[in-house]
Amino acid sequence: MLAAPDTQAIDLPTFHSVIDLPYTLTPGRATGTFLAEIGNRKIVGSHFASGKIIAPAEDFSPDDGEDVQTFVEVPHTGVLEGYTKVNNDVIGLIQLDGCDNEFAHIILADFETLAVGTRVEAVWADGVENSILAIKGFRPAPETPIGKVLPLGKPANPIEVIPYAMKLDYEHAYGPYYGRMFDEIREFGRIMGVRTSNGDDALLPPRERDDITHKRTGTWKACEDTGTIRGCSIINLEFIGQTRPPPYVYAEIVLDGASTRLIHMIDAESIQWAKDNVRPGSRVRAIWTKGERTGSLRDIERFELIDG
Fold first, then answer.
1. Could you tell me if 236 and 271 are in contact, meaning their C-beta atoms sit under 8 angstroms apart?
2. Same domain, 228 and 149
C-alpha cells in the first residue's frame, strides 16, 4: 500500500501547454461590408430610419432593433470623446463627424498631450485589407475641417467568412496528485488513483479531497487497465482538434478498482459496428502506445472491447 502524497508546498516543474483554437468568423452583412470597404480606405456606417448614423456599420439599430436602411461612407475625421492608456497604447473613443456613436481605436499621440474634444483624423496602414487594422490609428489634427457623410453608392460584396485563431500559451503545474499519476504512467505504464476516504475504490484522477465526504482521501492504489463503459457517444463527424479520424467512440470508462470515470476513445470499424457492439456495460482494455512513454493519457492509444 502506497502512502498518500505530501501536499505541503513543493517545487515541481511546470509544463508548457498551448490552447490553439482555429475557427471561422461569419461577420454578417453590415460588418462584412465594413471590412470589405476598409481596404479601399472607406469607413462604412449604417443609416437607420430614425436618422441615426452608426459606425462601424451594424445590421440593426441599437435603439429600436430596426434593420439598417442604407450603408453610408462616413468621414475619416472626428472628435476625441474619451481615452485611456492600456500597456503602451492609448485607446480612444472617437465620434466620427456625422455619426451618433463612438468609434474605438488607437490614438497615435502621447497620453499627456491629449484632451477630450481634440480633433483627430485616421492614419491608414499600407497593405492591410479586411481588418480594422487597415486604420493604423487616429492622430491629432486640430485644423482638419468637419467632414460630411456621403452615400456609399454600390458597396463591395460583404466579406462572408474570416479565418481566425485564438492561441494561449501557458505554464501548467500538475501538483503532487496529477504529477504522481502521470509519472507512474510514464515510468511504469500503470494508472494510479487514490482511495476514497472510507473505502478501497480509487478516485481517478487522484485528488486530495473525497468528492462525496469532503474528507482527506486515502492511500495510493494501482488500478487495472481494464474496465467497464458507463457512458458513450459515437463520433461520426470531423471537427477541428480531433486526434483520430471518425468514426470512433467517445467513452466514459470505470477502470477495475476505480469508482470514477476515465474518458478515452475506442476505434470503430464503422458507425453500424459501433451501434451493434459498444454500449454501457461493455468491457474494455487499454491498448498502450509502443515506444517511449511521455507521461500523459495519450500513452494509452485507445481502448478495445474484450469479452466478459
1. yes
2. no
Q: Specify if 265 maps to a domain.
A: yes
Tell me the C-alpha to C-alpha distance, in Å, between residue 84 and each of 66, 81, 112: 33, 11, 11
Return d(Cα 96, Cα 7) in angstroms, integer: 58
- Helices marked H in the chain — which ranges? 28-38, 175-188, 271-277
Q: Which residue has the cell 441599437?
A: 62
284 neighbors 306 (Cβ within 8 angstroms): yes
Q: In whole angstroms, what separates CA 160 from the centre of its chain? A: 21
* 177 DSSP assignment: H
Q: Does the residue 189 lie in any domain?
A: yes
- Quick one: pLDDT at residue 240? 75
What does R_g of the chain's alpha carbons equal in angstroms?
30
Backbone angles phi, psi at 134, to 5 degrees: -65, -25
Please name which of 98, 146, 142 lies closest in space to residue 120, comparing C-alpha atoms. Answer: 142
Asked if residue 231 and residue 142 are part of one domain, the reply reads no
pLDDT, residue 289, reads 92
Which residues, including other chains, have CB under 8 Å from residue 153's CB and lie 6 or more apart?
Answer: none
Helix (H, G, I), strand (E, B) or coil at 275: helix
pLDDT-based confidence at residue 11 (cuts at 50, 70, 90): low
Q: For residue 51, what is the DSSP state? A: S
| 297: helix, strand or coil | helix
Domain that includes residue 217, residue range: 178-306
Judge whether 208 lies within some domain.
Answer: yes
Burial class (CB in 10 A: 0-12, 13-18, 19+), 301: middle
DSSP per position, 106-141: EE-S-GGG--TT-EEEEEEPTT--SSGGGEEEEEE-
Q: Domain check: are 142 and 200 in the same one?
A: no
